[in-house]
Amino acid sequence: MSGRYSHVTEAMLQEVEDLLTGFWEIAIQQRAALSPRSAVPMLDAPLTAYRDKGVISLAGRVARRA
Question: Of the four, 17, 45, 50, 63, which is 20 to 30 A from 5 by CA?
Fold first, then answer.
């Protein structure tokens, strides 16, 4: 962002990070609904939380900000 905009603030960067994190959480939650396991270790690790239940989703944060 700083290469394109000279006025990027820490708050702006944090907002982008929060939104992307929320999108990631939604994607993992939807993927877990399809199948709780993956042969790809990098994807299987975050799916573990959905196999173990009791996960609090960040999906509401994204929906409220959008």
Answer: 63
CB 47 within 8 A of CB 32: yes
What was the pLDDT predicted at 39? 94
Q: Is residue 5 a part of any domain in this protein?
A: no
**Total number of domains constituting the chain:** 1
pTM above 0.70, yes or no: no
Is residue 22 within 8 A of residue 15, CB to CB? The reply is no
Give backbone dihedrals phi and psi of 20, rounded to 5 degrees, phi first: -65, -40
pLDDT digits over 23-58, tens only? Answer: 999 999 899 988 889 999 999 999 998 887 655 554
Domain of 45 in residue numbering reads as 10-65
